Structures
1.
Amino acid sequence: MLPQSIIDKILAKYGKERIFSADCAPLGSAIGISETTVKRMFGLVGADSKERNRTPHNSTMDILAKWLGYESHEALLNDVGEGSYTSEFTSLESIKVAELAEGTQIRLSYHPSRVIVMTYLGNFEFQVDESTNSKLIAGDRLKITHLILNQELIAGDVVRDGISLGAYRGAKDGGLISLEIVG
């Protein structure tokens, strides 16, 4: 869902005080985005839907910003006080790594079709057991402090065959889509 300040700008330009589901297709057409994206941006998807709190892609925000008369989405965000220096409180679904028992197995997935199963070794270290369509491979050891649904997978260090490969960023487009303890 978008910040209220941006929603107010959209409503003002569109000439409505409120958006209903029936407005989403014509509004999306006017902006150049899909009806479903408009529903997500206005919070008109189910309250339990994971899509409700999903942040729109940068490309979608650029289209919206240009429709509103801004050069980029960064300019829009800065104008409404939602730029990169702002903060928010939010509820996050996560696995608290610090509270895991050694030997706990985690399964996570992200787009496109990437699945990783890993075992917690203690001291924020995991070993990859299985990897599908990922640059990580079985046997890799990862340093991970946070596992948060809908956020990127960040490993501070990846060690393969005793050699550090450096930090790793996965799930950059949309974040982790599933995160579960499996054993």
2.
Amino acid sequence: MLGVVIVSYRSDDLTVRFVREELAKITVPHRVVVVANGYDAVQAQQLANRIPEAVILPAENRGFAAGNNLGVKWLEEHDRPTYILLANNDIRFRSERVVETLVETAVAHPEAGAVGPEIIGPDGNRQGPEPYMSLWDRYVWMYLSTPFLGAEKKRKRFALDYPSRAEAGSHYKLSGAFLLVDAEAFREAGRFDERTFLYGEENILSDRLAAIGRTLYFDPSVTVLHDHGQTIGRHHGDRERALMQFDSMACYYRNYRGNSALSLAAARCLYSLILKVK
């Protein structure tokens, strides 16, 4: 049995399209759960009327991590699926048998706690996989070094072409926009860390899976398209979204990588100034 969890926030049309047009292509037995973040009972029922094939769970909007965890827990209580697909509603399948292939890959690689496909953004570029990057490299030096490094040195120093070069196999980080997780490994790892609201969940999951001896496996034999930011972009500007990402990532760097509160405050200050002049 396969479970599918979608976290929806004020994006009913996207959710309905994704369930009716994309998830309908899945040929293996599955159950779809939509966590309706910030919906009241009436709004949740309206969504349920449009996609009766899905279970709708109205929830307080506590973010991406908490929403996914809620959907996963519901599936564990009712269906006990072997694998769970965590999917954004702004995804389109580009390959045939996308989900079926990911399940087959997971079975073939039992060391993997999660498996992800090639994910292509609106610009035509891959959204991951990614290597580990320190706090200061990610938010400060990558920008401040621009006047001192040529394009080629900067590309190598910060592995900017890592996603385009990534081959099938284990990688530090995969995108959480479309990720198949082993339900048992996800539960053992502690699921997502609900201290994050949006962003940073994949980094934390990577470390949590590594702690139980599991990896994240990239399978580029199947591809999905991801119109990244289609929902959040309607509610937050670029700078606000960037700082929101930093604040979620701060939870990761503080609690999983040992950065001090002082270093996080300094990095945020510098990053905020960088965003103003970018």
3.
Amino acid sequence: MKTSKIISLIIFVTALSLVYVWQQAKVIELAYEKQKKIKLCRALLDRNTFLRYNLSTLESSGNLTKNLREFDLDYEMPSFTQIVDLRSTNEKNKLKLASSSRQEIKLNSQKSTKENIVLSLFSLRSQAEAQTK
């Protein structure tokens, strides 16, 4: 009887020790993760400060005119009535394809309405059509 109590006590103490060690390992692991996140946050803040500084220097009119003079570029500011398109050629091509497909759909719908008018003359019942704007 004593040996079974001693064995069960040893198993209980061992299980309790394993749970304690596992908890301590998790605490250390979480501390390392916290340190990594703090380090990443500091790096991001430094990068943000650097980018804000560069943005402010790039946007200053004095710096822009200096760069334009250095590279001897013939840029001119657009007037208020001009529209400046900054999209890439790839985006422009996509827009052209989309507009041409819309025009094809309009042409097809106009053809189908003409055919429907002709067919309605010969049909005995009325036709239901959905109208699009």
